[in-house]
Specification:
The protein is about 75% helix and about 0% strand. By secondary structure, it is mostly helical. The chain has one domain: Hydantoin permease (Orthogonal Bundle). The chain binds tryptophan.
């Protein structure tokens, strides 16, 4: 199949930077610590790691190879590989998931953007970080304005094309983010009283792990690795035949998991040192990080500004991948031009984000799934249901419809031999991954 005219990734590193840029985002630094806190700490982390290795890495390989083989967007890929079937519905589900996720993702990313400008001043004024945060997100208009600013940045990047800008800067900015994270960790673990936080994060207590927690671990693994909605299919479609899919999958998953782990290491010792509540929810990062930096004096203010700047960039490289999946569909299949697709979808996504923002304040009395606010409910539906379901169906597609022989053949083209797909992959994708997802679903709806 000739896919030349769609363009390719320039280099192996360029691809890894873009795919890791998609994976590393708010999911790692904002969501992973707060979900881990909510569901009990270390035991949750262990289950999360198991899901990454046994379920998500095989699915990462599968999405990438389906993308490269078909050379198409999330929905078009299924039309090419399974013509005259209904498998394209899996792609459609993914596009809807991307639309929903970006709507609230952009609200949180707007908070991060606002904090570039606000956190330093707040810290200097000696204000209580929790009060500051709550006052900010519960106000009706300001967070929506920041949500709009963030969506505009996304629209700007995606409508201009992503390779020359974001990809180039990600290579510098991502390593800088890791460095700042290390500074944060060093300060955090040396705070008096931080030991309890380390224990909470690193010593598993399985009695705290609920069925809902296990489902959340699975959903978080999909969310953090950008899986289950065709994002990696789309990115895989720009891969050349000589690029090594199995090794890339490990790099992306390893980098993503490593950064999430570091974020937890930065947050939890500080949470306990400052007497905050680990299950505090979406505000955790926005409250603890300024608190840690404030404890460092003037230099801390500088680190705070840098931290939220880098978090905004990390969120942007992820958000553009979400918008790209949605728009690639309208460009390829509905034949809209790029500008039209990006602006129309961007505006609708912005509008859907408004109730997520208002749900923090003026609309906070409206509760949905299990007492969650609007933002949390959308996240629950998208991360915990749509993404694992998309992953499950992809396993069935590869393992039982299209065939693992074809998948292994495609996946190993360009593999240099350090890691190749074989019997292990076949077993995981046919049995382990789909059965694990199925059991988690049954358990979380209370079947046993
Ligand atoms: N993985 C990103 C994060 O951790 C978010 C993201 C980008 C995503 N693309 C995705 C989540 C596709 C699910 C599916 O912040």
């Amino acid at each position: 199949m000739e896919i030349k005219e769609r363009g390719n990734w320039g280099s192996q590193f360029g691809f890894i930077a873009a795919a890791a840029g998609s994976a590393v985002g708010l999911g790692n630094i904002w969501k992973f610590p707060y979900i881990t806190g909510r569901y009990g700490g270390a035991a949750f982390v262990l289950v999360y790691l198991l899901f990454v290795i046994l379920v998500c890495v095989p699915i990462m390989n599968s999405e990438l190879l389906v993308g490269r083989k078909s050379g198409k967007n999330a929905l078009g890929a299924f039309k090419v590989l399974a013509p005259k079937s209904s498998w394209w519905i899996v792609g459609l589900m993914g596009i809807i998931a991307g639309f929903v996720i970006l709507s609230y993702y952009s609200v949180i990313a707007g908070w991060a953007t606002a904090y570039i400008f606000k956190s330093g001043a707040y810290m200097a004024a000696g204000a209580n970080p929790a009060d500051v945060f709550v006052a900010f997100i519960t106000s009706p208009a300001t967070p929506i304005i920041w949500h709009a600013i963030f969506m505009l940045m996304c629209i700007g990047v995606v409508s201009a094309g992503i390779e020359k800008g974001i990809e180039k800067y990600s290579k510098i900015l991502m390593p800088t983010l890791v460095l700042i994270l290390l500074v944060l960790i060093i300060r955090s673990v040396t705070l008096p009283g931080s030991g309890a936080g380390l224990a909470f994060y690193l010593k598993p207590d399985f009695s705290k792990l609920s069925a809902e927690g296990i489902l959340a671990a699975l959903g978080q693994a999909f969310f953090s690795l950008s899986l289950g909605m065709g994002c990696m299919i789309t990115y895989g479609s720009y891969l050349k035949k000589d690029q090594d899919i199995p090794v890339n999958s490990y790099w992306i998953a390893g980098a993503d998991t490593g950064i999430a782990f570091l974020a937890g290491l930065a947050i939890f010792p500080a949470v306990f040192a400052f007497g905050l509540e680990p299950g505090a929810g979406p505000g955790l990062t926005f409250i603890t990080v300024p608190a840690v930096f404030a404890s460092m004096g003037a230099i801390g203010h500088l680190f705070g500004i840098l931290f939220f700047f880098l978090l905004t960039i990390a969120a942007l490289t992820s958000a553009i991948s979400l918008l790209e999946v949605v728009c690639a569909y309208f460009i390829d299949e509905v034949k809209w031009n790029r500008k039209k697709a990006v602006w129309i979808m961007g505006i609708f996504i912005f509008l859907l984000g408004i109730p997520s923002s208002l749900g923090q304040g003026v609309w906070s009395s409206y509760k949905f799934i299990g007492g969650r606010d609007f933002l949390d409910s959308l996240d629950f539906i998208a991360s915990n249901i749509l993404l694992p379901l998309g992953g499950f169906l992809l396993c069935i597609f590869i393992g039982w419809y299209w065939g693992t022989d074809k998948a292994i053949e495609e996946g190993n083209i360009g593999a240099k031999g350090a890691i190749t797909l074989g019997g292990g992959y076949r077993f995981l994708i046919k049995y382990v991954a789909p059965i694990a997802i199925f059991i988690v679903f049954l358990k979380s709806i209370g079947v046993f």
